[in-house]
Amino acid sequence: MMNSTELHQKGWNLDNSYSNLPETFFTKQEPEAVKAPKVIKLNHELAKALGFHPEDLEKQDSVEVFAGNRLPNGSVPLAQAYVGHQFGHPNMLGDGRAILLGEQVTPEGKRVDIQLKGAGRTPYSRGGDGRAALGPMLREYIISEAMHALTIPTTRSLAVVATGESIVRETELPGAVLTRVAASHLRVGTFQYGANFSTVEELKELADYTIQRHFPHIKDDENPYLSLLNEVVKRQAALLAKWQLVGFIHGVMNTDNMTISGETIDYGPCAFMNEYDPKTVFSSIDTQGRYAYGNQPKIAGWNLARFAEALLPLFGEEKEEALKVAQEAVLRFPPQYEENWLTGMRAKLGIINEEEQDEVLIKDLLQLMENHQVDYTNTFLSLTYDHVTESELFETKDFKEWHQKWHERLSRQKDSMEASKELMRRHNPVVIPRNHRVEEAIEAAVQKDDYSVMEKLLAVLSSPFELTPDKEEYCHTPPDSDEPYQTFCGT
Ligand code: AMP
Ligand code: MG
């Protein structure tokens, strides 16, 4: 029989390539043990994909790993260094409450970071306690898994473990540790850190490492560092379009919260838009609307300019030439983003071929949504499934005219109406994690220790493109939708 000390090692297959980088990029740091770890949620599907038997991970002995009380074999735990432009201002940051256990190499040979978020203080904690509260970690779990099901690149959540300790925020809250799985935790801010605090040689090592890990096909390019910039521009253009197409608002698009891999990271004050309005902001600290829905693509471009600046020393001796190629690369972001967005919008409206006037047709619909303050997701849903949701918009003259133009447009392609509808069904989610449903699930869990609300929510969010009867109630917009919803940064 296997004894418990072996059980907690089962399935782990860790490597630590990041720890071979120059030491300036991290500090070796073990997680701080917690009092009474208890598994709250384990992601069975993800666990299997990573090479674990979910039943093994449920055992208390394994839970200790997700709490930071034990280390799996082969782990070289560390906190990563990075800086970040927060709301436009540069700050020294780093993992203040996260510990990278290492990189799990999956049975398919994929390499992913396994990180404990809320695992105690590190040299980068500044004034913070290194801890996380249960509510926000459940929020990250729910929304990151919903994003994954929506086919949006994202970090994922493997486990949430309660610590059995309280943490002090505005009130005392139960503590938790989230196990985050990411293609890597390399950020724009990691490169900004390198540009500010390392030698050019070390920065080059970081870039080479990144290329090896995420973009091995560019390593023999004439200027691989410029190719790196181009690749990141491409991935972020694709990502931002996907966010906009589902109405996702990140909330804190600081440069430390933008990955090099092109995955969505750091689910703090994020939320999905209800009524269509480009000015929608959810973060309570974003008083200027810097990170409003309609600003996100522009901010991504701004962040990529910071990435390009950080890479400049690697672009060659000729300073002016380096600046020129960097600028050209960053300027390719807006058209690439637009192209991705337009392709996605065409799909949402069942448009298969391309006509120049499509953009006007799309923007007219968005304008109607804004004028009539109607729900973004449900409007597309109704177009897809012929008015499953009620909306006063559909009764208006403006909309009827638009609807006719849309139908005329669809008739100008050789594909059948059924082909259009099929495309629409694959691109218009039936459910999104609406704020009020997410909050309701978290409240039941945290206040009443009732996880049934969250489980039901997670179940419907796992197949967002299938119209099934259990989803109907999740399509409803918040009852009191004139009250602006806000999420808070004190996570
Ligand atoms: P975030 O807003 O989650 O992107 O975090 C910004 C920075 O603050 C990162 O460097 C975090 O590691 C750090 N941070 C956030 N919360 C805490 C905390 N409770 N203790 C220590 N550092 C924290
Ligand atoms: Mg962050």
TrEMBL record:
UniProt keyword annotations, A-Z: ATP-binding, Magnesium, Manganese, Metal-binding, Nucleotide-binding, Nucleotidyltransferase, Transferase
EC annotation from Swiss-Prot or TrEMBL: 2.7.7.-, 2.7.7.108
Residues forming the catalytic site: D256 (proton acceptor)
Residues noted as binding ATP in the record, renumbered to the chain: G94, G96, R97, K117, D129, G130, R180, R187, D266
Transmembrane segments: none
InterPro entries noted in UniProt: SelO
Catalytic activity: L-threonyl-[protein] + ATP = 3-O-(5'-adenylyl)-L-threonyl-[protein] + diphosphate; L-seryl-[protein] + UTP = O-(5'-uridylyl)-L-seryl-[protein] + diphosphate; L-histidyl-[protein] + UTP = N(tele)-(5'-uridylyl)-L-histidyl-[protein] + diphosphate; L-tyrosyl-[protein] + ATP = O-(5'-adenylyl)-L-tyrosyl-[protein] + diphosphate
Residues annotated to bind Mg(2+): N257, D266
Gene Ontology MF terms: AMPylase activity; ATP binding; magnesium ion binding; manganese ion binding
Highest taxon listed in the record's lineage: Bacteria
Pfam families from the UniProt entry: SelO
Needed cofactors: Mg(2+); Mn(2+)
Claim: Metal-binding is one of the keywords in the record: yes
The family this protein is said to belong to: Belongs to the SELO family.
Function noted in UniProt: Nucleotidyltransferase involved in the post-translational modification of proteins. It can catalyze the addition of adenosine monophosphate (AMP) or uridine monophosphate (UMP) to a protein, resulting in modifications known as AMPylation and UMPylation.
Protein name: Protein nucleotidyltransferase YdiU
Organism of origin: Bacillus weihaiensis
